[in-house]
Specification:
CATH superfamily of the largest domain: Tetracycline Repressor, domain 2
Low-confidence stretches: none
Helix content: over 70%
Oligomer: single chain
Order of helices and strands: HHHHHHHH
Largest sheet: none
Distance between the termini: 73 Å
CATH class of the largest domain: Mainly Alpha
Mean pLDDT: 85
Shape: elongated
CATH topology of the largest domain: Tetracycline Repressor, domain 2
Number of domains: 2
Radius of gyration: 20 Å
Number of strands: 0
């Protein structure tokens, strides 16, 4: 090693990769219908030791909170309109991301609500709602989406359907009905 150089940048990169592997494994594990996923199972799926898991996430709650925050970050980042995309298409594509996230979120949210304050979850929900407001406003201004709905109401509809304890195949037509109901009727 050269004088003045340290191995820390490499170690930080490895630590970041381990954190990402743990979050990916946890995301996959919590998508399983199994009622209880242990920290040991998450470490096994991530291919890391228990010490690495606990160094990154001191407990199950910290892991769930990080996983939820990571998912909300992704949803917020996706609130964009692609070139040539209609405002309605941009909004519906973004809402589909919300809907796709639901099967993974149900277990995470229920455990977080059980052990943490609701304020933290409400803060993440508010971030997601704020991220999509411009998509809804653009679609409403274009006359493509009903003007009498707020983003909070749309989220509440999605959450209400997500609370139904059924398979994704059962829920999907219900979500599609909500998406269809957002559109302005052709005259």
């Amino acid at each position: 090693m050269e004088a003045g150089k340290t191995a820390f940048p490499r170690r930080r990169a490895a630590a970041e990769r381990n954190r990402d592997k743990i979050l990916d494994a946890a995301r996959e594990a919590f998508a399983d219908p199994a009622p209880e996923i242990s920290m040991a199972e998450i470490a096994r799926r991530a291919g890391v030791g228990m010490a690495t898991l606990y160094r990154n996430f001191p407990g199950r709650q910290e892991l769930l909170e990080a996983l939820y925050a990571d998912e909300v970050d992704q949803i917020c980042a996706a609130a964009i309109t692609e070139p040539g995309q209609s405002p309605e298409s941009a909004l519906v594509a973004w809402l589909r991301l919300q809907i796709a996230f639901i099967p993974h979120k149900r277990l995470i949210i229920s455990e977080l609500l059980e052990h943490t304050e609701r304020e933290g979850i409400a803060t993440h929900r508010a971030r997601a709602i704020d991220a999509g407001r411009h998509l809804l406003a653009a679609a409403q201004e274009a006359g493509q989406i009903r003007a009498d709905l707020a983003m909070e109401q749309i989220f509440d509809l999605i959450v209400a359907i997500a609370k139904i304890n059924e398979s994704p195949g059962y829920l999907q037509p219900l979500f599609e009905t909500v998406l269809d109901g957002l559109r302005v009727e052709a005259t």
